[in-house]
Amino acid sequence: MTEITSDFSGQTVICTFEMTPATASELMEKLQSAYSEVISKAPGFIGAGLHMNDAQTRIATYSKWRERGDYQAMLRSPEMIARNRYINTLCRSFEPVMYEVAANY
Questions:
Q1: pLDDT band at 96 (very low <50, low <70, confident <90, very high)
Q2: Mean pLDDT in residue range 69-75
Q3: Which residue from 46, 82, 48 is spatially nearest to 66, judged by alpha carbons?
Q4: Which residues neighbour 103 within 8 Å (Cβ) at sequence distance 6 or greater?
Q5: Model-level pTM?
Q6: What is the mean pLDDT of residues 33-55?
Q7: 6 or 71: whose pLDDT is higher?
Q8: How many whole angstroms separate alpha carbon 78 and alpha carbon 91?
Q9: Rounded to an integer, what distance in angstroms lies between the CA atom of residue 76 and that of residue 53?
Q10: In this structure, are residues 80 and 35 in contact, taking their beta carbons and an 8 Å threshold?
Q11: Cβ-contact 96, 11 below 8 angstroms
Q12: What is the pLDDT of residue 5?
């Protein structure tokens, strides 16, 4: 379980995917595969969670990294470039955004 704490000094990334219910299951399957086979094995990876809304129109991922460069290096790997090209065909959009934890409750 990835813990959210305000004293975390690494990189937090929240990525949102917008899709139709017709592609939701396949997209989630591809994301789970990417996390289990590639992302979770990348240097600096700490943990992640994947979430889908009830309408199956949005997926949100939350991941924690030791530092920003670790996340960026994973994205630039040939394996993730190929996977993200395919993932992009399953959704209307996806946007990874880097955050710092401001507070936790």
A1: very high
A2: 97
A3: 46
A4: 6
A5: 0.92
A6: 98
A7: 71
A8: 21
A9: 28
A10: no
A11: no
A12: 85
As a whole number of Å, the end-to-end CA separation of the chain is: 16
State the Cα–Cα distance between residues 51 and 34, nearest whole angstrom.
Answer: 15
> Is pLDDT at 14 greater than 90 in this prediction?
yes
Packed helices 68-76 and 78-89: angle between N→C axes, nearest 10 degrees? 80
What is the rounded distance in angstroms from the CA atom of residue 66 to the CA atom of residue 45?
Answer: 6
Q: Give strand pairing partners of 94.
A: 17
Match 């994301």 to its residue by tokens.
Answer: 31
Lookup: tokens for 16: 């949102």
Q: Identify whether the C-beta of residue 27 lies closer than 8 Å to the C-beta of residue 19.
A: yes
**Two structure tokens written together for 72:** 């960026």
